[in-house]
Amino acid sequence: MISRRMTILALGLGLGLGAFAQPAVADPNYLEQAISDTKEAIAAGKQMESASFVEHIDDAYDHARSAVWQTPVDPIRKGIKYLRKAAKLAKGTSLDKRIDKATEQAELALEQFQSVK
To answer: According to its UniProt record, what is one Pfam family this protein matches (predicted)?
Structure first.
């Protein structure tokens, strides 16, 4: 019995330590991805492509949320607020005025993201 318990304990410790012994994978640079997606959203907004604009804004928002975990600074937080406002303005509409306002919000977000670098 004791040898069986020791075997199970040793096996459990070996598996547990094996999980920590794996090499670390470098995290992607989320801020760069947020900047890239925001630029693509701005380009789509200037062409009045609301569906593409919203898709890129959503991607930029996801990447910016991840970036703020890596680098918790105020410009990224402000950029996220601008992205949220841009998405709110552009979702469910194809009105030129609303797309223009949403594009302006995306441009403000881009300025915030670029100020971090």
So the answer is: SMBP
Rounded to whole angstroms, the Cα distance separating 30 from 10 reads 40
The Cα 66–Cα 58 span in angstroms is 13
Say if residues 102 and 89 touch (Cβ distance below 8 Å): yes
pLDDT tens figures, 87-101: 999 998 889 999 999
Structure tokens at 105: 């919000």
As a CATH number, domain 30-116 is: 1.20.120.660
Domain boundaries, given as residue ranges, for the chain: 30-116
Whole-prediction pTM: 0.75
- Residues 45 and 60 sit within 8 Å (Cβ to Cβ): no
